[in-house]
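For the sake of transparency, this paper describes our internal protein records without simplification. An entry from our holdings is shown next, in its original layout:
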Amino acid sequence: MPLRVTPACLDVLALVAGGMLPLAFSPVSFYPLAILSLALLFVLWRDVAPARAAWRGFLFGLGQFGIGVSWLYVALHTYGQMSGALAILALALFFAFLACYSALVGWLQARLFRVAGPWTQILGISALWTLGEWVRGWFLTGFPWLAIGYSQVNGPLAGVAPWFGIYGVSLAAAVSAGLVAQAWRHRAVVWRYVGTLIALWFVAWMAGRVDWVQPAGAPLRVALVQGDVPLAQKWMPAYRQPILQRYMALTFAQHRIDLAVWPEAAVPFFRDEVEHSFLARLKQTAEAHHMEILLGILERRRVGGVVRYYNSVIGIGRDSGVYRKHHLVPFGEYLPLAAQLQWLLDDLRIPMSDLSPGPARQPPLRIDGQSVGMSICYEDVFGPEVMRALPQATLLANVTEDAWYGHSLASYQQMEMARMRALEAGREMMLATNTGVTAIIDSHGNVVARAPQFRPWVLTGTVTPLKGATPYVNYGNRIIVWLLTVVVIGLLAVPRLRRS
């Protein structure tokens, strides 16, 4: 008997397609799978009612985030000490919320482009998908994780990034998926869609060959210090001095280093507690080694009678400076709706979970005559925020405490997003983490050096300061968002104009 494919079977296929998508991202990085996964969803959306299209989009999102962001369980349960049942419930609600974006795109495309021609469907659905990712990147503080463009950082479509940023790459990937879907549906004229796909990838690859930046000084010899300090020890008083001694020993065992970078909150004290003891001694030792240091530390300052706490990076050397983290992690560094949800913060028991944000715009840190655009933790997943330091910044650096995620996908995915930031900005980037992935990334998004994970390590290499600005630095997401909006409105208006 032939197998009968029911609508419910196709619904399950949408869930499977979403579950396959994370394999396109790091560490597997099989980037063509992102195109195929999304193309399968587009095929499943064809000729179905809006409600069914929304349901399949929702299931796709559940698979995408349920697998791709499953590492949040480690942060909540293993290290945040949330009960297993409550962690699962919280993540189920969070994944359901994220899945609503692809559900909304499914419903809209079925309402707007269900009976449209193939080329209108390719452009219209791709534009809606990319707009959905863009909204997800800022709505309710934003969660741009697993935007489909990140999966293409190793492929030819990454050449779009310096021009239009991550959402330009997502649009190119979505159009590619639309072409594959139409090629599957219209096999008699498959050459039209395959030819367009090849042309799109070739143009994107050529766009990536354009050089927008030039050297802004001599290369710097850098040392990225990976302490590998367990979270269970980091905030215990008995381990404070051994932690400082470890970082000192790792740092000053290096020779002829211009800049050392320590991870987020590497110093397990408040700045005012060690300002005139450890930090003063560190500065003297660094000067003796002709070295400058960027290090993560917590600050507390009295502002208007209220003590505020900051997650900061300070410069130790000739040009002292401070960067205070602006984009805080909800439920990790601050509590939304604190009056109603204080019980949740008490259950999580996360250290330093009541922080204040630094200013939205802060000058780059001056180090060894160069300007370093800083980001802390997951700030580097927000392209427009990293670009605020440009074009003044000649280098980029991110410091992270990634022990929260253990042996999971999170660190690999964040490094992939940092590679996209380097591509967008046309700047080399230094990633200094506690447990890995610690890496040096060039201005083309390539990882040129990387430390092993979960080992005390010093990653040494050279970074070249660069000047100049890519189109994305100059215009941010404005061009791509306007373009997508015009495309959707235009595709809807043209048939009506023809009929009238």
Remarks:
- The mean pLDDT is 93.
